Amino acid sequence: MSGGRGRGPVLDGDHHVHSTFSDDAVSSPQENLDAAVRAGLATIRMVDHVRTTTTYVPDFLAVVRALPAHDGLTVLTGVEAKILDAAGAIDAPPEVLAAVGTPAGVDRVLLADHQFPGPDGPWSPRVTTERIAAGLAPGDAVEMLVLATIRAMRSVARAQVAHPFSLLPKIGLTEDDVSDELLDALGAAAIETGTTVEVNEKWTCPGERVRGRWAAAGVELVAASDAHHESDVGAYPWLRSVGRS
Ligand SMILES: [Zn+2]
Ligand SMILES: [Zn+2]
Questions:
Q1: Number of helices and strands (H, E) in the chain?
Q2: Using one digit for the tens of pLDDT, what is the confidence trace for 130-141?
Q3: pTM: predicted TM-score of the whole model, two decimal places
């Protein structure tokens, strides 16, 4: 499932695959499963978007659990939810969060930086960019994002960081604005909490410096296509081009 210490993610797993339970994806869980078998994957994590008001998770779990078994392919589950605020609140139904890692629940919660986790709730990229232009220091913004992610990790039994730092280019920043100290804090918290961290094909992140630092620290990096169509399951043109670490 994962690379060893100091390595990037192994590419025979896909830890972030969306189905028609997400309103922006087009393939069924069965179609994604078939794609994983064709791609020769050892692991597929089926994941769909949730908000606090989402009600489909029991149906989603029933459908995924009813899929036919294939030798050599492990099917895992998850929900993807944004981090809402600087305190690390997660935009998922409380009962879904409470059941994570139990037999009745999803296996992991994917923590996403779809919006900036501000002190008073989610800020859109536009609002965040305006606040930075108005004087919010980039370093302070990045620290708020990283600390919110760590708090969210600590608040659920099993987490996975989705597309780390995909938000930064949308708010005029880059991974160069993230200090080594903050990278190490996030990495240490991931290890301590058993949180996996994605290398995400769709968003082509995180970059080489971040991947290398986390891999060297022993963070469990996992490959993630973020597929919204079966044809993207386990397909890693960017990940293969950047190598395994
Ligand atoms: Zn996402
Ligand atoms: Zn996603």
A1: 8, 9
A2: 999 999 999 999
A3: 0.96
